[in-house]
Amino acid sequence: MSVRFVIDPIEFVNNASVHRDKIAMRELARLRDVLYSDEGALDYQIEGHVDLNGRPSLKLSIEGDVYLVCQRCLNSLARDVAIENYLYLARNSAELDRINEDNNIDAILAIPELDVVDLIEEELILSLPISPSHGDNQCSPYQSGLNKTSIDNRSQSANSFSALSVLKKTN
Ligand SMILES: [Zn+2]
User: Fold this and answer.
1) 16 with 75, same domain?
2) What percent of the chain clears pLDDT 90, i.e. is strictly above it?
3) 74 CA distance to ligand 1 centroid (A)?
4) Separation of 148 CA from ligand 1 center, angstroms?
5) pLDDT average, residue stretch 159-171
6) In-domain check, residue 1
7) What is the 22 CA–ligand 1 centroid distance (Å)?
8) Do 167 and 96 sit in the same domain of this protein?
9) Same-domain pairing of 147 and 86
């Protein structure tokens, strides 16, 4: 069962609406490839906001844990998520370009049916490291076994290399 939550962002801001909910990790299909496990859920809050210059934005907060794949040992790597971001609402693409020129501000198009779960997914993807890994010497013991294998392979190929150089010398 999908839990899409769709808003009209301008109306959401005009009503100073606030919506708080949980989203199951398994709902976030675009994240599946980078997750070790899709168990668990994230808490989020979306809030209509107008800044001092009268510009409308959505304040999005996301909190929870995600389980990524460590790129060193391929085991589970827990990571805290704590995102708080203002997404400014642009009424058209020209306005979007103009707002995006300011690098400190994120803007989105204020389409009349904005999928909040898509937004959460997008923010999460942007916040995650490209190549996550445990700290030095923090990969699991099972996996240091694998590392040993790769070291053995390396010394083996080093041996065949020196065997080759011996052959060359005899020629
Ligand atoms: Zn690791």
Assistant:
1) yes
2) 68
3) 6
4) 14
5) 50
6) no
7) 29
8) no
9) no
Q: Is 58 in contact with 47 (CB distance < 8 Å)?
A: yes
Q: In 27-126, which ranges are E strands?
A: 35-37, 41-50, 56-69, 76-90, 106-109, 114-115
Tell how far the Cα of 156 is from the centroid of ligand 1, in angstroms: 25
> What does the pLDDT read at residue 3?
66
Q: Cα dist. 142→75, 138, 146 in Å?
A: 10, 11, 7
My answer on whether 98 and 135 are in the same domain is yes
Q: Classify residue 107: in a domain, yes or no.
A: yes
Residue 46: φ, ψ to 5°:
-125, 135
151 and 102 in one domain?
no
The first and second tokens of residue 124, run together, are: 């999460």
CA of 95 to the centre of ligand 1 (A): 44
Q: Are residues 167 and 91 in the same domain?
A: no
Please provide the average confidence, as pLDDT, over all residues in the chain: 85
Residue at 39 is within a domain: yes
Same domain, 130 and 171: no
CA of 132 to the centre of ligand 1 (A): 9
Average pLDDT over residues 117-138: 93
Distance from the CA of 94 to the center of ligand 1, in angstroms?
44
Ligand 1 centre to CA of 126 (Å) is 22
Residues facing 41 on adjacent strands: 24
pLDDT in tens, 38-92: 989 999 999 999 999 899 999 999 999 999 999 999 999 999 999 999 999 999 9
- The pTM of the full predicted model, rounded to 2 decimals, is 0.77
